[in-house]
Amino acid sequence: MTMTYQFSNRVPKSDEDPVGNILKVAGSPDVISFAGGLPAPELFPVDQLKRVTDEVYDESGRQALQYSTAIGDLQLREQIVKRMARQGVQTTTDNIMISTGSQQSIDLTAKMFINPGDTVIVEKPTYLCALDVFRSYGAHIVGVEMDDDGMRIDQLEAAVAENPNTKFIYTIPNFQNPTGRTMSAERRARMIAIADKYNIMIMEDDPYGAIRFAGDDIEPVKFYDDHERVIYLSTFSKILAPGLRLGWIVAEKSLIKKFTLMKQSADVHSDNLTQHIVAKYMAEYNIEDHINKIKQVYRKREAVMMQAIETYFPSGVNYSHPEGGLFIWVEVPGNVDTKALFDTCIKHNVAFVPGEPFYPDKVTPGTFRLNYSNMSEDQIKTGIKRLGSAIKETIGESVSGISGH
Length: 405
Ligand SMILES: Cc1ncc(COP(=O)(O)O)c(C=O)c1O
Prior knowledge:
- This protein is of the alpha/beta class.
- It has twelve helices and 14 strands.
- It has an eight-stranded mixed β-sheet with strand order 2-9-8-7-6-3-4-5, sandwiched between helices. Strands 10-11-14-13 form a four-stranded antiparallel β-sheet.
- A hairpin with a 7-residue loop joins strand 10 and strand 11.
- Helix 4 crosses helix 8 (253-267) and helix 10 runs parallel beside helix 12.
- The protein is globular and about 60 Å long.
- Pyridoxal-5'-phosphate is lined by residues 37, 101-103, 127, 172, 177, 205, 207, 235, 237, 242, 247.
- Pyridoxal-5'-phosphate binds at residues 37, 101-103, 127, 172, 177, 205, 207, 235, 237, 242, 247.
- Pfam families: Aminotran_1_2.
């Protein structure tokens, strides 16, 4: 007799993994893939991390290999206080908890605040793995449209007013995943004003803010927060290396206490050795110099991708113009089936992530995400040329050729 497993409501009903399948197809060696969100591995400071790892083993190996506290290594938190100041947020080590990457921070925050049926308000589209987390806790997810200045604050207020059980707003204000768009300073202040008026929390997810390669810095939403309602998340994944699995949460001290309790039951604490290594790396090397190198490479790759898009895409196709981060968002007007377009692209040996999984509800057809951090400039030119041909094969030379447009 085969066993029928009695899963909890948190477990997805279907075993389908559409994004995993896309990444698998995109991973074939002939395909130029703009699908994943991978940082450039040639930029990982391997030699420096190797050196400080040896030093940690030599100087404090027994301590680094021991159990530790859920809040995380003090020296690492001290370094994060300095990094936060550069992002425009003054904080203290008691306001920081180390996490096993921002993905865990999102999960712990959702676990801490969401009862089934509670509303979470998100940008539309948004980071698909955050949607998966919110769904797993039974959240009612409400998407708010975006434009080039980020979440539409007029619609946000309407969404909050319509959903009195809103627990928090989830926002990725800088170089958003998937759109690459950034929320204006004015909207950040207005988001706080709405959260104050309706007494709701804000989860500010900021993995990309440090990687601004054009335009002026904008202070985080947390900067405008006078009532400790913003839980700010960031990570070493995009500024150092994602395989380290280290992120952090900045929040009011009593919230950090709750987070540490939640974290203890999740994984006791994040990898202590890795925390020692990153703390030592930050003490001995200037991570800001390293971030500047990343910015220079991504700035060039983004410029090459933009130039190629202008050259090879049919006229009428819209795309975002990111000033940092890893992604460009493309909108092909008309009722284009993005999955069919994806299949055509695979025949042309180029890949992207179709927009669908990034939408909490109604999907805007013809949308997809491009990543420029993980391919060389030559691959970007060749890949975008192939993509342009695939789009033209699907919709013709220009968008005006589509019936109804
Ligand atoms: C918006 C957003 N949040 C969170 C994460 C997860 O990051 P981490 O590697 O720190 O878990 C990502 C990763 O791509 C992301 O794009």
